[in-house]
Amino acid sequence: MTVTYDYAGKTVLVTGGTKGLGAGIARAFHAAGAEVVICARGPAAVDGTRFVQADVRDPQDVERLFAGLDRLDVVVNNAGGSPPAPLASTSPRLHARVVELNLTAPLLVAQRAYPLLAASGGSIVMIGSASGARPSPGTSAYGAAKAGLHHLARCLAAEWAPDVRVNTLVVGLAATETAAPHYGEGDGMGACVPAGRIATPADVAEACLWLAAAPRYITGAQVTVDGGGEIPAWQHLVSHADS
């Protein structure tokens, strides 16, 4: 079964929309007919979108980003991420910046977007992470921030209903430009996923299209996009012991 979406006449903002999951999400909304605005710290371009250079951790940049918008139907709070950052050996400043990017920035964007979304009956999709739902060794600040983002979405869904829907995609292992430092080279990580491969930007984008168009009663939801989860290491140990 093929599902199609019509976002003609809608305006969609995708933060961090110049690469990785964000670029895939931006392209999908553009293909569905939306006017798509993307932002990132560095200049870049995605065909069919309007780019605004902005650091969403900076309230002044957020204000400038929204100053050019007179309508908004969907916000995808995608900007985020972290380099490998073991807690004991990483500077406090880097940990703080990771939390700002993955938790504070989505809060600032959502806060500024609220009047426009309330006027259009729009919705926010938070791009969460499996790291916020299970231990995240080596990226503890990131995992903690994503756990906070999941909770923030639930809080905003309750606070802003029924005017604005707020939902979360909890994304598992995903193939992006920055995946190699975390997962290593090659496609061996697919063996850790029941679906047999890690997620692509297109997988996450399709889930975004659906969630942004979901019935108005669906708010405060967490939709997991992880191919069935991550197979625990003990299962591999058991299988090796039995062979």
Would you write up a description of this structure?
The chain is 40% helix and 16% strand. It is of the alpha/beta class and 243 residues long. It has a 7-stranded parallel beta sheet, sandwiched between helices. Strand 1 (11-15), helix 1 and strand 2 (35-40) form a beta-alpha-beta unit. Helix 1 crosses helix 6 and helix 3 (92-120) runs parallel beside helix 4 (140-160). The longest helix has 29 residues, at 92-120.
The CATH topology corresponds to Rossmann fold
Radius of gyration: 18 Å
How much helix, percentage-wise, in residues?
A: 25-40%
On the 0 to 100 scale, the average pLDDT is 92
pLDDT < 50 runs, ≥5 residues: none
Quote the beta fraction. Answer: 15-25%
Domain count: the total is 1
CATH superfamily: NAD(P)-binding Rossmann-like Domain
How is the largest sheet built, in terms of strand order? Answer: 3-2-1-4-5-6-7
Order of helices and strands: EHEEHEHEHEHHEH
Global outline: globular
How many distinct helices? 7
